DNA sequence: CGCGCTGCGCTTTTT
DNA sequence: GCGCAGCGCG
């Protein structure tokens, strides 16, 4: 609904008129929340004694803040200019303002001898902060040998940054000599809470005839792990009955965490110091220091505090934001507006409990804040609930159906207790109820979705309502939502080929687009003459994979490409190279523009060499950093976006795509910040430990048990579905490829096969191969059929950095067999391996643990690992790796890995010839690998 | 029917 | 690395 003309309904009226006191507003999807909030604001500032400076209105995005202001000025005495500086803003921007004005000494409250000044920068770019954090971490590691034991099990430094931010969002801060206030209590855990989780997963199933889920999960205890010598054996952990012994709960929970806590404290505190010394703050630290300031300085707090506080989208708030709101309120005129059903930002530290258990949290937080001083001076026990239930967006059929999402079970071990779910049913004010809800399924989901769109377009069965009239739907009325950007991008790609009017809205992983990958490929060619560059360029030109393989081996690149390379070589700037590459491939669209802009803006702030640019793009691909790109496709086009991006929007027709049998939700809780060491070489270490008795021990058995006690939480996934469905005004289509996921299967809608029929749409002819190349017969033992060394996915796998894991059971068989264990081959692959090994003379061994020092950018990089199977002869040494399928592991990944071992073994056997080879057990043969030089490895590492 | 082993697939984003 | 589903065995 729009604001200017309509009159509020009764509930909205109540919200607008009730401006004094505590209110918790349950504002469901499409209930005219913004309408009511903006009118309420207008009503508040109508009072003679109140000006906009007295009213804090918090939103969660800058865009929302701007929209609020725009809509407020439509019906209040203040104009845009008067509201420009009014506190209608996000928590972050408010905290920034507070720190700018009063934050100079805020760090000293934590014992940090530094200051926040006008020149202190806010780091917005994730890539930049990660780079800074890595630099900090390297220094920290050097300066703190006392934490060596924990430092060496950190495989990904930036996950520690994640931990720091999470603690900051919970209000846990370090001080010079400990933890701020009672922050430490959060780090000790709550045994009672853990024990009840433990008991729940440890309940026997099927009325006692079946072992508990926990016992079943722990069947893998110790598998692929190296535990400390005092770790209990598997049968002691699992017990003999249907349950894990109850005493295990205490054994795994109770451990001395002082070393871990002191490590986390030191990292956290030193990073705060580092950031301030470099004159920057991240978003989390803004809130941290603002909180500290408001906590410590009573006079300042009372001075800043607002007479009225309103918070929009309260389900997206974090613990510290809830507390900041209380510190910023001078009276109990507080109003939070939100909808627990739309809480989908937990990864951003949003806590749905803030709104679900608002009253209890309010009391508890106010109590905590009043520790030692009276900071929340108003009563908090009288909260007036208001529920908006009139929906202005969707038909009643859609509204009723969407509620199903919240009570749908996600799988065998997931159930929803419907009586526990507090759903305020919405009632539609739509006059029509011509709604279609359907589910389609086809292996080629992209084409199926496009076909469905074609069917819907201008189809009288999908009429939609506009101004009380029904009309035919156009492309612009349709939106496709996906859980992942990947799917959206693929769909768009197909749509482009079919010349379908479709546009992507939202952040794009810019560096994972084709223009960026082609640019990276050419840069690699220029800089290193690298296969990884040529392969991509050749593939793009339409060569088949076998042809590419041959061209790379023979280094016989097409003349036209060599000429283009020479042309690029003559260019001085990376901007020039970028422009040339884009123009060669006809990339003139929005992606290319934004890419060029990004590169040039980095270039103008630093002097960027080609090597720098390569690393910049590689990092961009790795981190998947996103940039807002406006594709500006024609006026009448289908919108594609992620569900997260679609929040707050509405479309007449919604297609919810990609409802496939993926395992939902994504791993909750995130990975442990202090994670296990990179598993490279784990199996070899185990073998080595067994063979030589010198295990390299690094694993923690308690963690293995603890992890398995945490139940999966599907609630947010249910809410995500709910958000997607409630965007729809009239029609809802679910779509899945391959197999539908459990949610879709459980929903009360029939899933129908939907074969795509897009033949009538013009398709461009596939590009012709430009060069025919004779493929030489592969060498190898007789009787094996040749097969391509390159699977279809290799380029993608390698480009996206997937496929570094090594372990296959065949490999394990080979190692055990070679080491003299009594192994019987159980499949043809293993038989092939056995035959190969039997045909070789000489000694096999698993090499000792070694460290290969590589010098990278002046810093030492160490790769630790145990060499794979090594075949030693008097005059030569051969490193052998095995693989059954290359689909999941790019050959270049093997080459990288084997190269590391190659140099290790070369050091160990200086007088002998060293070779490294992969044995393709499936159907092929052995192939020698040309190891990367140390210099090339350095580039990769 | 219960249990253990094996193969498969694999992430959202704002300040 | 990890959960889940499918399958074979007892």
From TrEMBL:
Higher taxonomy: Archaea, Methanobacteriati, Methanobacteriota, Stenosarchaea group, Halobacteria
Any GO BP: DNA repair
Domain UvrD-like helicase C-terminal: 396-648
A Pfam short name: PDDEXK_1
Annotated catalysed reactions: ATP + H2O = ADP + phosphate + H(+); Couples ATP hydrolysis with the unwinding of duplex DNA by translocating in the 3'-5' direction
Superkingdom of origin: Archaea
Swiss-Prot/TrEMBL keywords: ATP-binding, DNA damage, DNA repair, DNA-binding, Exonuclease, Helicase, Hydrolase, Isomerase, Nuclease, Nucleotide-binding
Organism per entry: Halorientalis brevis
PANTHER family: ATP-DEPENDENT DNA HELICASE SRS2, UVRD / RECB / PCRA DNA HELICASE FAMILY MEMBER
Stored InterPro entries: DExx_box_DNA_helicase_dom_sf, DNA_helicase_UvrD-like_C, DNA_helicase_UvrD/REP, P-loop_NTPase, PDDEXK-like_dom_sf, PDDEXK_AddAB-type, Restrct_endonuc-II-like, UvrD-like_ATP-bd
Enzyme Commission number(s): 5.6.2.4
Protein's UniProt keywords contain DNA damage: yes
Family to which the UniProt record says this protein belongs: Belongs to the helicase family. UvrD subfamily.
Residues binding ATP, per UniProt: 27-34
Location of the UvrD-like helicase ATP-binding domain: 6-395
Name the record gives this protein: DNA 3'-5' helicase
Broad enzyme group: isomerase
GO molecular function: 3'-5' DNA helicase activity; ATP binding; DNA binding; exonuclease activity
